[in-house]
Amino acid sequence: MPAGDWSVPEFTNFTQEYQKAFNKMPGMVASYSFDGTSVLIEAIRNAGSDDRELIQKSLGTIRCNGVTGQIQFDDKGNRSGNFKMMKTLNGVPASRE
C-alpha cells in the first residue's frame, strides 16, 4: 500500500508504472523523489542554463500537478498548498498515537 493518500490521476499512473517496474506499490519516498526530480528537470529546462541562480528563480515559477498533488513554491522556497503530516517508523507509515 502506498504511503501517500493522493487521489490525483498522476498518482494512479505513477503507481501503475512503478508496480510494473518494481512489482510493488511505491512508498512515500519514491513518490516525493519522483516529484522532486520532475520539478528540478522542469526548472532546469525553463532556466535554459545550468546556472544555479537561474534554476532557483525558475523553481519559483513552477506550477504543476505531481503525483503528490499540486506543486508550487512560496517566496521562501517552501512548497505551498495542502499537505498532510505522516508519522513513519522504520520507513513505514505508523498510526498516530
| Global outline | globular
Strand order of the largest sheet: 1-2
Count the beta strands.
4
Helix content: 40-55%
Q: Whole-Å distance between the termini?
A: 21 Å
- H/E order of the elements? HHHEEEE
Summarize the model shown:
This protein has helices at 9-22, 28-47, 52-59; strands at 64-66, 69-71, 88-89, 92-93. The chain is mainly alpha-helical. A two-stranded antiparallel sheet has the order 1-2. It has a two-stranded antiparallel ribbon with strand order 3-4.
Structure write-up:
The protein has 97 residues and is mainly α. The protein is built from three helices and four strands, in the order H-H-H-E-E-E-E. The longest helix has 20 residues. The chain is globular, with a radius of gyration of 15 Å.
What attributes characterize this protein structure?
97 residues; two-stranded antiparallel ribbon; 10% strand; 4 strands; mainly alpha
What is this structure's SSE topology?
Elements: H1 9-22, H2 28-47, H3 52-59, E1 64-66, E2 69-71, E3 88-89, E4 92-93
Antiparallel strand pairs: 1-2, 3-4
Helix pairs in contact: 2-3
